[in-house]
Amino acid sequence: MHKLYTFLKYSFVALWTMFVVAPFLWALSTSFKDFQSVTSKVTYIPWVDFKPTLEGWRVLVKSPARGGVDIIEPYFNSIFVTCAASAISIILGTLAAYALSRFTFKAGFVRNNDITFFFISQRIMPPIVLSIPFFIFLSTIGLLDSLLGLVVVYIVLLMPIAVWIMVDFFNRVPKELDETALIDGCNPYQAFYKVVLPNSIPGLIVAGMFCIIFGWIDFFFAFILTFTEVQLLPVKVVALNSSVTPWWSLSASALVSVAPLIIVAFIVERYLSKGNLSGALK
Amino acid sequence: MNLIADNLTYKPDEQFHLNDVSFNFKKGNLYTILGRTLSGKTTLLKTIAGLLNPDSGLLKFEEKNFGKIPVWERNVAMVYQQFINYPHLNVYENISFPLKQRKISNDEIKENVNESLKTVGLIGFENRKIQELSGGQQQRVALARSLAKKAKILLLDEPLVNLDYKLREQLREEFKKIFSQGISEETILIYSTTDPQEVMELNGEVIVLDEGKVLQMGPAKEIFENPKNLQVAEVSNDPPMNIIKGSKVSEKIKFENINIDVPNHFSKLDNKNYNFGIRASEIKLDNNGQEFEVELAEISGSETLLHLKRGSTKVISLIEEVMNFKIHEKVKVKFNENKFYAFDENENLVSSPYGVLNG
Asked: Which residues, including other chains, have CB under 8 Å from residue B11's CB and lie 6 or more apart?
């Protein structure tokens, strides 16, 4: 019985792994194909089924003048905007979340939960509603089509996520822990960064990951708020499409686009299992 | 150089958490705060620590207005009923944390930490993670941290309540030892509990608290022997003291058609209605006694708590062995008349088997 269970368990995991990994393998295989190999018949393995070529990858680094789409600059732009916006969102969001979790605010009918909901409600709104206000706002302050402008907009998108996750996390850290820190001679700031913060690393990682993912994959605002000066990766990847869909270079760009997220996930996964997310505090 | 409270009152909602609490705690003494859950014990300790600000009243320590000093400068230590330690630090770092905050030299920190580890019996656990310790060990770490600080006021908020029975017994014994040895003459020790037995064993000055109000203050023996009123009698006994509505008529205690000879200490009482009090341990099974019906029999450890009923009178008898009873079974019990208390219609103590009443 036990053996059967183990067998079924591993079979399921194996099936699921194939299900998850298959699209990546397919994209990897396709990225080395040319027009002929994609359109003729179904082919899987390079050298056996078809003759591999690097053309799909070359397109990504060639300048437009020579028929490529040069994603290198947009790539670093995307990394910069995502990291900067995530970092600022996490810092501001964590501070806001701590205050919302520990102190009681009253202003008219507004209470802590209302403030928390205000943050979350930023995500409830469809992004398209914000597109025109953001456009006007950025053009007024002269940040349209600039990295800084994108960072500002992304903070608006990402900070609610950070606040939401961290409020929930801080609510689960017993208040007595802060109080003990105060009694043990920490002032409120020291209690926060010497005691509360080190015990919130799993929460910070989860929040950080969500920020990075949502920042990295955003197409809409990157598309609306930039023209020629600055471009982000998602917009550039879409620009690959022409009359003939270049499956090979689309596959290659898809792989390089998800690469950073996969790297982050691997680093973080190790940390999450080590820092036992749930058992740290009883 | 005492800790003095003047009319502390705290009422954050409909109910009083502290209601006009005043006291004068002296250094080198142990004070136990006895009260049921939600009686205001934790509120009082948090107020002394500075985590709560009372609505009114004054707290003074060493001739200074304590209320004006922030928590982190008060030099108090507190152990919570939950085992609160810093989960990201190991045992040694946990205990040294408050000392590091004070910027004490490393050698001195080491000496202090080792000393308090020794006191709580955790030598050799320095590098363990908090999560790897049992509940009892975690609470010892918390205690060691507060001892290492050598704080002038040490607050213990029901430190044993979340431990299992056996560990509680053991740790309670150790606490007594630690309190007698490890606490200097410079420290005020304040210990809160719901357990009257703990209060008697620790044998300090007792403050009986209910609904934020101080019901009685005095040495443990005094509270046990002369509970000022019915509330104190109930709170300070486990199981609560039995209260029987009855009357004294011509040298007899009468209730539910039972006549019991009046004990000597009742001789001066007027003939009228009283609330008679008697501890569960003073009601014993006896074939020559009065007939009662069994409502419930609880076995707890090596004792049996027998819930009895006769007419509208309900009493609990404590039998010091494990016995089985059927529900609705008739049993005969005898009341030890020499241990009867009498409370008047205002629920104040008028006569006690232990004699003299002061006021």
From this structure: B17, B18, B19, B55, B212
Q: What is the pLDDT of residue B357?
A: 53
Counted domains in chain A: 2
Chain B CB contacts of A195 under 8 Å are 86, 88
Does the predicted interface ipTM exceed a cut of 0.90? no
Mean pLDDT, residues A89-103 taken together: 94
Q: Same domain, yes or no, for B259 and B152? A: no
Q: Is residue B236 part of a domain?
A: no
* Whether residue B269 sits in one domain with residue B325: yes
Across A54-63, A82-91, B12-21, which has the greatest mean pLDDT? A82-91
Q: Is B98 at the interface with chain A, CB within 8 A?
A: yes
Residue A60 lies in a domain: no
Q: What is the mean pLDDT of chain A?
A: 88
Q: How far apart are CA B103 and CA B116, in angstroms?
A: 18
Which residues of A make CB contacts under 8 Å with B?
174, 176-177, 179-187, 190, 195, 198-199, 276, 279-282
**Pair B208, B87 in one domain:** yes
Confidence of residue A150 (pLDDT cuts 50, 70, 90): very high
Low pLDDT (below 50) residues in chain B: 358-359
pLDDT digits (tens, 9 = 90+) for B267-315: 888 888 999 999 999 999 988 888 999 999 988 888 899 999 998 899 9
Q: In angstroms, what CA-CA distances link B190 with B113, B155, B269, B340?
A: 22, 5, 38, 32
Are residues A145 and A26 located together in one domain of the fold? no
Question: What is the domain extent for residue B313?
Answer: 242-351
Q: Is the CB of B51 less than 8 angstroms away from the CB of A179? A: yes
Residues A183-197: pLDDT tens digits? Answer: 999 999 999 999 999
pLDDT at A280 (0 to 100)? 41
CA closest to B129 among chain A residues: A280
One domain for residues B37 and B134? yes
Residues in chain B with CB shorter than 8 Å from the CB of A184 are 72, 77, 97-98, 101, 145, 149
- Interface test with chain A among B42, B51, B66, by most A beta carbons within 10 Å: B51
CB neighbourhood size of A267 (10 A): 12
Task: For residue A240, report the phi and psi dihedrals to the nearest 5 degrees.
Answer: -65, -30
**Does A88 share its domain with A201?**
yes
CA distance A193 to A182: 12
Count the domains in chain B. 2
Say yes or no: A115 and A165 in one domain: yes
- Does residue B86 belong to the interface with chain A, where contact is any CB pair within 8 Å? yes
How high is the pLDDT of residue B359?
Answer: 41
Q: Is A42 in the same domain as A102?
A: no
Question: Are A177 and B84 inside 8 Å of each other by CB?
Answer: yes
- Do B174 and B28 lie in one domain? The reply is yes
Sign of CA dihedral B264, B268, B272, B276: negative
The pLDDT value given to residue B300: 82
Interface of B with A in 183-202 (CB under 8 A): none
Same structural domain for residues B289 and B312?
yes
Residues A104 and A132 in one domain: yes
For chain A, the residue count is 282
Contact B284, B317 (CB under 8 A): yes
